[in-house]
Structure formats: structure tokens, C-alpha cells
Amino acid sequence: MSDRTPSQNNALHQYFDDLSTAFQAAGLDMKQILKPGVEIPATPELVKNLMWRPIQKIMVDKESTTELTTTDIDAIYQVMARHIASRFGISVPFPNRFNQGDKQY
Fold this sequence. Notes:
Order of helices and strands: HHHH
Shape: globular
């Protein structure tokens, strides 16, 4: 297994940002996504800590995103993206050098 690269780290955090933006554009807040009863706007930090990390912990038993390999990130993304698409109809591609303009990944 290969360690996560700095570019992949940047892409991972860009994904959290892109997904929170997509949730906001769809009018969804974290209450609708995860926590019924309280209106909590989607932010990159909440996407990471309330969505990504629980899946990460279950799938690869790692606490920190700094411990993830490229294979781990791809597997976690696939599970999370499939769930979000089926539940909310939102599809956000994982950032890469081909779909992010001049941002470097």
C-alpha cells in the first residue's frame, strides 16, 4: 500500500469543501443529512468529521485521515459517494488534476 501523497491530501480536503458546497446548493443542511432536529449548515469540517471519518473508521479502522493510503481513500470515497447519490441525488466527483482547473492535485 502506498501512503497518501500531499496532492491527494489536498484533493481529499477539496472533496469535503466541494461536497459541503453541493449540499448547500441543494438546500440541504446537516440536520437533513445526519442530525434531525437541529439546523446545522454543511461545512467541510462537518463533512469530514460527521460523514467521512465514521465510514473511514468502519472500513479501514484508522482514526486520522493522515493515516490513509491512496487505496483507503478511493474505497471510502466510493462508499460515501454511492450513499450520497442514492439518498440525496447529489454526485460530487473526487477532485483531481483533470476536473479542478488550475488547482494542483
